[in-house]
Each structure stands twice: as structure tokens, then as C-alpha cells.
Predict the 3D structure of the following.
Amino acid sequence: MASPVHTIVKNALSLMTGRLVSRVLQFILFIYATRVLGPVQFGVFSFAYALTSIMAVALDLGAGDYTVQQLSRDMTRSRSLTGTGLVVRGFLIGFGLVLVMAVGYVVEPGAQSLEVLVIMGFVIALDSLTQQYNAVFLADERMEYQALIVMISNGTMSLGGLALMYFFPVLHLFAGVFLFGAFLRFALSRQWFIRKYGRPVYQADRTQTLEMLRQGLPFALVSVFVTLYYYIDTVILTIFVDKEVVGQYNAAFRLLEAPLFIVSAVTTALFPAAARLFVQDRNKLKGLTRQAFQGIIPIGLTVSVPAAFFSDEIIQLIYGAKYSGAGPALAILIFSLSIIMPSTILGTTIRAIGFQTASAWVTGMGAVLNIVSNIAVIPYYSYIGASWTTLLTEVFVLIAYFSLASRYLGYFLDRWFPARVLAYVAGLELMLLATRAWGMWIQSGVFFVVFPVWMLVLGLVDPAITNRLRQKFRPAGKET
């Protein structure tokens, strides 16, 4: 039987491969659409995207996470739980779409904004149904199914969207591309589920439905609160400033999201394993949490430090001169990445082991902090203030999650890990400052040579990984 670490790595790599291909293509689509639509039109889309992302949780109410948690311990219930989840989501979709339109009409009543909201509303409705099927693949730890679905659907959507935007750079068509992608994801996931597990069983099981809603509610609250402090700043900016500023801010924010597929793949694979190990072997779970937490922090910092240093150049290169105002926002927002990554590891572990209510309290307090801070600072500091509130909210959530994880699992960090991380960041910053005169491209080349060496010197790479690499590349004659 494969070890938990081996299974998680295999599944995470499957998801990373699928998401990397689709994310790269989707990222190119976003960049191209941002250029051809302009800041104002992209601001309208960003508002619709943010609002529907917030409201998407109303179409789930934690049914997906509850399904993964339960099926990771008993896969025999896959058909009945899927049927119950689809019924629950079917009722919630109507409510969610009405809520999206109502809020959209109050906040941004323009006809164009409402039309785009309608399209994006159907996107989240289809994705809600898709997530119920995907929950079974995740619980069964067959992440390759989801990886292929994402790669095929998002890849097709992105390539088709690029062609469409080239000939017809129209906002409504850009939103329609996302609807096409959502339909593909739904059709593929449903077909794959039926072939692997059979058709969902729709039972009038009132007890199971109420249990799913009751146990899933804390998961839903976590999703609501996390989505709020990811996207509420865009909604508040829409109220206080013009659409061009909203477009500038979201241009920077989209770059923050790009590398998150790494931690998303890891935590998706981690969830069912953590749920199982909490019952079977808590010492293994503690070691697994330490490996994931200490391994992801250097990855986040390796992206954040140079991206902040070259923020103006990156914005100029990707978006062009008309988005020059996004540079200062990116320099702040990108450090949220190195906070979000370890925070997501801990939050996922806490929810997997059954403390989803505690996780909901943490994210709820983070959402309140973020909303209050944004309302206080955006009227005076615009999108720069919104950038700082995002970063500070993530710091608060990480500290709270670390305290909870230490309480439930015991203190899990290696003794000198914090000092090694500080030394790592200081070394990278000094190298970039010392070579400033060389220019971004030469500095970037030097950086990609220096950071793995510096990481190895400080012992930030898991010894098990370095040992496997040594064994792989050791000459055959020197084996003992």
C-alpha cells in the first residue's frame, strides 16, 4: 500500500499538470482580453467575476467538502451522497442566481453589468453541479480524472476564447467563453462519474439531506468568508472609485492568483489523506502537516520576492503602459501569495480532521477585518489601501490557523525553520539589490541559479527529496 506522502505527491502532481496547462492558457487569455478590452471594460467584467465568485458559495453550502470528508472514509456511499448533493445544489442554484441579480442591481445597476452578471451567474451554477461530481473523484484519491477534465475543458475554452477575442473583442463574448468552459467541465465530469461509479441515486432521504446541510454549513461559511476577503475589495472599489481603477487593481490581482494552482493541487490531495490519518495515525498526520507547511513557504517566497522587486516591469511587460498604475498594487499583493500558501495548508488540515467550525470562526473574523478595513481605507487610499488590507488579512488568518493547528496536532515546526526562512528572504533581497544595475533579464537568470542553491544551503528542501535526488543521479558503480 502506498504511503500517504507518496499518494499525496502523486495526486498533487496530477492536478498540477492538468491545472498548469489550463492555467497557462487561461492566464494568456486573461492577459490578452485585458489588453483588448481596456481598463473600463475589464473593470465591468472584474466586478461581475468578483460578485459571482462571492455568491457561488450559496450554490454549494459545503456539500462538496462534506462529501469528500465522508467518502474518504467510506466510498460505498458515493452514488447516494452524490444524488443528495445534486438535489441540494439544484434548490440552491435558483436562490443563488436571484441573489446575484439583486445585489448586482443595487451595487452596479447598469445594463451592461447586469447582462454580464447573468452570463457569469450561469457559469457558477454549472460549476456548482460539477463540483459535486469532482468531490467523489477527490475522495477516491483519483485526482487524474479531475486533472484531465480541467485540462480538456479549460484548454479548449482558452484557445477558443483567444481566437474569439482576436476577431471580436466584445465584453459579452468574453463572458460567454467562461460559460462554454463551465458547460464542458460539467458534461465531462458527469460522464466520467457515470462510467466509473454509475448513475447518482436520488433518494428522498430527509435525514441524509439535513445531515449534509448541517455538517456542510461550516465548510460553506469558510468558503463564504475566504471568498469575501478575496473579492469584496473589488466590490467596494466599484462603489467608491471609477471602473478604470477597478481594472488596474484587478490586473495586479489576477497575477496574484496565477501561481496559486500549486497550493490548490497540494491541498486538494491533502484533504482526504488528512481526514483518514486523523483517525488512523495522528503522528503521521503531524509529520505530513509539517512537511507540507515547511515545503510550501519557500515556494511562495521564491515567487513573491522577485515579483515585488520587478513589479513595475512585470506590469509593463504583460499589460502595457495603460496599466502602469497596477505596479504598486502588485508589489504589495504578491506577498499575500507567500502567506496564502501555508495558510491554505493549515486551513485544509483543520477542516479535514473535523474542526471546520473553528476554521469558519477564523475566516469569519478575517472577512470582518477585511471588510471594515476596506471601507475605512479605500475612500482615502483607493486600490493601494485595498492591497494592504488584503495582505494584513492574510497575515491574521495565518497566525490564527497556526495557533489552531498547534493546538489540535501539537507544535509541528522544526526548531530553526523561522530563522532559516528569514535568512532565505534576506539573501534573495540582497542579491537583487546588489545586481540592480544588470537589468531585470540578467538578474532573473542569476536569481534562478541562486535560489535553489541558497535553499539547499539553508536546509529548506525536505531531506527526503534531496536523498531521492542523490539516489537517482548517483553513478551505478558507487551504490552500496
